[in-house]
Specification:
- This protein folds into two domains: 120 residues, Urease, subunit C, domain 1 (Roll), CATH 2.30.40; 230 residues, TIM Barrel (Alpha-Beta Barrel), CATH 3.20.20.
- 31% of the residues lie in helices and 17% in strands.
- The chain starts with 48 loop residues before the first strand and ends in a 6-residue tail after the last strand.
- It has 14 helices and 16 strands.
- Helix 3 links the parallel strand 9 and strand 10.
- It is α/β, with parallel strands linked by helices.
Amino acid sequence: MIRFSASKTHPADPSKKSALSSGSLALYFFCSASALGAIGSTTATAQPVAFTDARIIDGTGAEPIYPGTLVINNGRIVAAGAADQVTIPADARLLSLGGHTLMPGLVNAHGHAGGVRGLESGHYGEENLLRQLSLYADYGVTSVVSLGDDEAEGFRLRDSQNTPSLNRARLFVAGPVLNPASAEQAVALVDQTAALNPDFIKIRVDDNLGRTPKMAPEIYRAVSERADFHDIPLAVHTFYQQDTKDLLRAGADYVAHSVRDSHVDDEFVGLMRARDICYTPTLTREVSTYIYESEPAFFSDPFFTAGVESEILDTLREPERQQRMAQNSAAQQYKAALPVAMTNLKLLADAGVRIAMGTDSGPAARFQGYFEHLEMWMMQDAGLTPMQIIQSATGDAAACMNLNDTGTLEVGKWADLLVLSMDPLQDIRNTRSIEQVWIAGNQLPRPRF
């Protein structure tokens, strides 16, 4: 069993940094004038910035602070709290938010980055990574834990991001998804992956609804033991409740998908709580398996269409493609499993299991940025409160993934934050009202939503 510690973070190390060439892809943003005033872009090192007259939701689950003040300098938060308790530096730039909401940037505890362009895989590279990390950021997702299929370019970006000049989403990586054929090979593959210094080891223990062989217990136990040896947490893709119980007994550190075959029982809850294991529902992963059997309602949502190429939608609208999905037995099985997943989310949240918002976005038609908001909206539909969801998508997601420098608006952490024009505690769907995105104290050009 891994005990998360500060040693699992990756501080900036000049020996690990890789300079991005001037020929790299121009970062992808949607730009328009800010409704809060033409604030423009700023840099973390220019001068302190003080947000005033803010409704602060800090990501810890605490009640919001209003009127609140938050001060950032050199990329980090240096003060935050009630307006009458925060001293603003004399040289600070003052930004009055007029009562709008200030909250941490979203943390996607299960995503993927760099491999897909349009609907086609096989495009992993720095240019595609930067494009996708900028898209995530445009939707307010300021940290992404990519759980698998990560290559050298992703590791380089991970190792170069602890800097006040950052202006795209943070990336954390697991390397390859391991699929050893024996316990001996499990040890060798974990050793090879550990040499890359990943944030997680990732395995799949799933039979794809009875269509493929499932990893044997002696193999995943060997993976878990070797991951423990290297002090790297083990994330597991799973579907069935019994498999997940067995994985937890074997030392798995993070459950990366919902249990979808049956409602979780007291034994399952006890196993999760015994070691404070975090659980990520990835409800939108299930949605993506069947939703394109017809045209989804979100195809007409400007918040969605602002971040997707029209050619992709044209392809997904093709009648032949939709018919194939409607007739696909696996798609229909996943569709039937979604209500079970949503019920289990509520059961586990009520039982005190920590929920880390994640989507499995990144593969084809699992739309980065938008799906994180859709996930939160579905979590509300499952019965979680807006405050529970915000904590799940910020402070708890960061803590679950051992991201010690982000996730909450607390002194010393990176100034990764969002300004919303509407209050998400009234309705989590108000997360769509993004006015500003800041990463490491840098204001990104405003999204056109």
